[in-house]
From TrEMBL:
Protein's UniProt name: UBX domain-containing protein
Species, as recorded: Brassica carinata (Ethiopian mustard)
GO biological process: ERAD pathway
CDD domains: UBX
Family annotation (PROSITE patterns): UBX
Basic and acidic residues bias: start-end ranges: 45-62
Record-annotated UBX domain positions: 72-143
Molecular function (Gene Ontology), one example: ubiquitin binding
Record GO cellular component, one term: endoplasmic reticulum
Phylogenetic classification of the source organism: Eukaryota, Viridiplantae, Streptophyta, Embryophyta, Tracheophyta
Keywords, in A-Z order: Ubl conjugation pathway
Keyword Cytoplasm attributed: no
Transmembrane regions listed in the UniProt entry: none
Length: 143
């Protein structure tokens, strides 16, 4: 083991013994920490899966609530949605459809990771936030 010839060697031996004792004492704590981290990761994975499933059901419900796309006509508005990732989606709506339905359509696509967004037209530039959900597309300037 350690020899006690000089003070430095004595300190090194003492440090080595303390480190071994701490290692034996800390081993159960490290095992508990590892078990906790494993359980936490499993819980987080489960919660993510539940949130994704709920989001998928919500998107499906909103898509079903939209109904069929109307054909071309004088009281029909075609909307092109451009998403931040560059993706584009087109759909026709009756002009008297509420802006809320347009939000439901965007939500049903599942492209956006957030639920806080606004609909913006190019020309004339108008912003249709959630405060305009009760307005018709025509009244909101979305034509």
């Amino acid at each position: 083991m350690c020899e006690w010839r000089d003070k430095t060697l004595r300190n090194d031996c003492y440090t080595a013994r303390v480190w071994k004792m701490e290692r034996r004492t800390n081993l159960p704590r490290e095992e508990q920490d590892a078990a906790y981290r494993t359980a936490l990761e499993a819980d987080q994975t489960s919660e993510r899966a539940e949130r994704e499933a709920a989001r998928g059901r919500m998107r499906q419900d909103k898509a079903l609530a939209l109904g069929d796309e109307p054909g071309k006509g004088p009281d029909v508005t075609q909307v092109l949605i451009r998403f931040p990732n560059g993706e584009r989606k087109r759909r026709r709506f009756e002009s008297n459809t509420k802006v809320q339905t347009l939000y439901a359509y965007v939500d049903s696509l599942g492209v956006l990771e957030t639920e806080e967004y606004s609909l913006i037209t190019n020309f004339p530039r108008t912003v249709s936030g959630r405060d305009k959900e009760s307005m018709s597309l025509k009244d909101a300037g979305i034509q």
